[in-house]
Amino acid sequence: MSPKITTELLKQLRQVMKSPKYVQEPVQAYIVPSGDAHQSEYIAPCDCRRAFISGFDGSAGTAIVTEQHAAMWTDGRYFLQAAHQMDNNWTLMKMGLKDTPTQEDWLVSVLPEGSKVGVDPFIIPADQWKRMSKALRSAGHDLVPVKENLIDTIWTDCPQRPCKPLITLDLSYAGVSWRDKIVALRSKMAERKVLWFVVTALDEVAWLFNLRGSDVEYNPVFFAYAVIGMNTIRLFIDGDRMMDPAVREHLQLDSTLEPEFKIQVMPYGSILSELQAVVAGLSPKEKVWLSDKASYALTEAIPKAYRYLTPYTPICIAKAVKNSSETEGMRRAHIKDAVALCELFNWLEKEVPKGTVTEIIAADKAEEFRSQQKDFVELSFATISSTGPNGAIIHYKPVPETNRTLSVNEIYLLDSGAQYKDGTTDVTRTMHFGTPSAYEKECFTYVLKGHIAVSAAIFPNGTKGHLLDSFARSALWDCGLDYLHGTGHGVGSFLNVHEGPCGISYKTFADEPLEAGMIVSDEPGYYEDGSFGIRIENVVLVIPAETKYNFKNRGSLTFEPLTLVPIQTKMIDVNLLTQKECNWVNDYHQKCREVIGAELERQGRHEALRWLIRETEPLIRVQ
Amino acid sequence: MSPKITTELLKQLRQVMKSPKYVQEPVQAYIVPSGDAHQSEYIAPCDCRRAFISGFDGSAGTAIVTEQHAAMWTDGRYFLQAAHQMDNNWTLMKMGLKDTPTQEDWLVSVLPEGSKVGVDPFIIPADQWKRMSKALRSAGHDLVPVKENLIDTIWTDCPQRPCKPLITLDLSYAGVSWRDKIVALRSKMAERKVLWFVVTALDEVAWLFNLRGSDVEYNPVFFAYAVIGMNTIRLFIDGDRMMDPAVREHLQLDSTLEPEFKIQVMPYGSILSELQAVVAGLSPKEKVWLSDKASYALTEAIPKAYRYLTPYTPICIAKAVKNSSETEGMRRAHIKDAVALCELFNWLEKEVPKGTVTEIIAADKAEEFRSQQKDFVELSFATISSTGPNGAIIHYKPVPETNRTLSVNEIYLLDSGAQYKDGTTDVTRTMHFGTPSAYEKECFTYVLKGHIAVSAAIFPNGTKGHLLDSFARSALWDCGLDYLHGTGHGVGSFLNVHEGPCGISYKTFADEPLEAGMIVSDEPGYYEDGSFGIRIENVVLVIPAETKYNFKNRGSLTFEPLTLVPIQTKMIDVNLLTQKECNWVNDYHQKCREVIGAELERQGRHEALRWLIRETEPLIRVQ
After folding, report:
1. Which of A379, A613, A620, B31 has the smallest number of CB atoms closer than 10 Å to its CB?
2. Domain spanning B167-319, CATH class
3. What's the angle, vertex CA A537, arms to CA A533 and CA A543, rounded to 5?
4. Range(s) for CATH 3.90.230.10 in chain A?
5. 8 Å CB contact of A459 and B480
6. At A622, is the pLDDT very low, low, confident or very high (cuts 50, 70, 90)?
7. Start-to-end Cα distance in chain A
8. Do A458 and B478 touch (CB under 8 A)?
9. How close B480 gets to chain A, by Cα (Å)?
10. Would you call B470 and A470 a contact, using CB atoms and an 8 Å cutoff?
11. Mutating which of B482, B557, B558 best tests the A interface, going by the most A Cβ atoms within 10 A?
12. Which prosthetic group or cofactor does it need (chains A, B) (predicted)?
């Protein structure tokens, strides 16, 4: 991977930062956030402005360019990748390390007095705008909205915004009709005494209307906004996709409906003016609800007195708690996904010793096996297929320049997942196709102990996920090892593979308490720069737990793994496990054997079935 | 404990809330916070306004009185106590429970439109003011400062503000001279480019000048403020205590000093006007630093442009990391404290079966034994001496009405500590003087497992204490038990028994990372309402840890118990311990025997020594 040469681009950007054509007054710094106008994590090619200007294309990062400097903030998952992809014009700011300045502090330290810092108001979330604006103002600078995106002005071959056909999601998948979701939303609005709700996140629009799309890779969403009133529904969406009879039928666009369920379809680009019109019609005390992460542009359109902001929208919270159709769908999706992985690992075991399997070939093969499964739609994120030192690059994606051949001498880490019409998967397994070293086994076993500590944790109702994060680290910490990422994220149901408002991370505090029906990942790891990476990830469902004393009837929760793929026992140093941990592994493998075994049998995949049975032999711990 | 009848008082308060003598416009609600003008946790009798109006005298709580309602917010430690002490005029708001409204939300729900909510601007911290003012304003109400404290206007027999003599702290105790502390503070000020620093917390003033006082019970502090400039030192303090030759000598008030170390002594009450004078002399960009928890009155005195607020002051952070004189002093204090407790427990073992020892007698006896130790000053908090059901009242203090007799049939919980000139102690032991039930032993053992999990935890440098909280709960959670308080708090060195900026609690997120030299408590518990309470508390010192892989030279930390008092083995169900936990208990008891045994021997306390030896017999775990 050679870095992108950005000298010329930065020169152009610095020119437009001073050009009266684009800015009322010159800006001394320009912020290029990661996201799009919906604060999406995965973005369409036309929105990859930060990657365009810097070369760094990881999923999280913020670039800031001043007259003298260009700096990139990203987190531990991407330190190596960013360092590889960016040229010497750029300074990497490692978030989470003690000495790394915040963007605000850094700006204050490098800017000349009384500077203007520009940003696209549609791209920056309102909460970030507020924090940054305040910090800059208190140091005598100004954050200013720059209407025209300055990257777009220099990006001559910028791709078009996608506008792909929609998928309608049947009640058997969604569990609740869009009408019932609207009713539930309006009742939350009534509780908070707000009259309007603006849906800005793409997965929230998709979830609300039981529609899916493919405008963004990996996330089955489509570019749209919605504005929900107590008697009106407005959907802002472009293209001829509303002409699709299936979509018209699904949304009952041509039916005689009670007026409060009649959907008005409007152009995507009219959201700001329509929102302004809504606001103009408000009486005092009437409020508009939107996420505090919505764009500064939309948030500013609502005067403060009418604004009702929350960190998590009622849709975000409702979406996180899966209904029984969704959990059953997630179970089915994970069974199919495990079948594909059993096939893959059986195939790799035979092929890797021949020295012909590269990271890309392995990733493609994984996709091929997945695509054979019913209701497969696409991958849920870019497959991390990494062997040896590449495994230490936490969010690595193999490209021809880095593509390494799998061998019997190196650890192989595969973090992959898919979108099926019934659910979303995300699973990481770390394998050795030869003989792992004692040190590799030791590290793997600590990671496994952390994985089990979270998966088997019992905790009272009302507990937030971040309180479980240290459980995943304890065994690593005891030996002086750690990993620089959170332990888990919420997972959507045939939706975004990363979703809020719950998760398991030392980094968040504002997460919502875990509830039965929520689905998160459990994925501790260990990474040795230049040598190998280890991660063990299951998607797990929050379920009620049974305990001896039941928290004085407060009730309690634990996790049920939805992912049912063997954990390679060859990598485990059994003597480092307690008997309880050993039993956990054996019980888990027993369940893999039963559930996935039956499906492999049904699908007639006998060789993979034999592999599964071999890989799920019980561990025996010598006391 | 019968509740305080507050009908008449509330009537009077509601009258002054409307009286033009005290308020410009009537206030529809009046907030009575817990604290004093320094946001102290322990307060002088003249500042116990919330206890006066409500009857509830726990250390944390906020009262709000409206025309119709009176409500009290407090946390899990005080639910039972508050319910016992307040009459039917009051509604108890249980903080931390899901359905309990915040003060702001509650106010909005009960107030008529356009209400005014009053509060004493010297008593409410600026950060609370800001949060509450914003929430009220967005609901159409106003938070207004009421200059005269309305409780004081109806409190006819309010005691005088104390003004007791000072204690000067020798360099051998303090480790660093006040001059060097001022130099270090000024260098932090220079780093942040601020010209002035306002010291508002009483323990920060005491620490900075190496002075102690006794204006407030349990906390060796005195009423004072300080304003530190780059070339000036102003100390705001009342009374003739500055006439004491030892104090004058200590502060070098009569010496010829470099002007930047010359202390100007000013009246306590002149802080606001002097601060206003400082501010009046500022040029643009010159800043004044103070805690964001300082009073609204002082914060407002500094116009926003000149204000530099941080959640923790540089003094708070420096004070938390003990120097070697302080840690050595803390060790000595804990050895003396353990001697006193060995004497006490030996005495209780003999006396309890006679049925003559009440909770108050036991608490007095504990104080008597402590007072025999060198450099004893006073207790560090009100002794929690509680038996049977009283033990379930987390911050119980025995009073004649509740005073229960210790017996061989009930669990006894003693949470106590002292101020010695060389250090502050805080220790909880839970004992049974007869035969504990299997259930009591089971609960005790889970609490012990949690205590050990924290005490023996190893974690990388930079870890915040709140990430360790769940370790203390894991064994309890597994069986469906929990406790409604944090696991640990910072402990001062001959200063406040509760201090920031570190701690171990699920409730905080803004704590500073743990560092070697910090001192915290480790005190998980379990409470069965109406039956018993269990808590096991040691004060522990953060020390560097040795690990196999040392976090890639990031380094790691663990804890060393400073408290060396046997944990009653009779209460332990050994079969519930792992071998590692069993070894921890045995090693701990071995250290108690060696260190405290030697001191008991030296002090000629042979009977207590025999008790110690018996109580520290190794546990044997049957596999």
Report:
1. A620
2. alpha beta
3. 160
4. 321-615
5. no
6. confident
7. 48
8. yes
9. 4
10. yes
11. B482
12. Mn(2+)
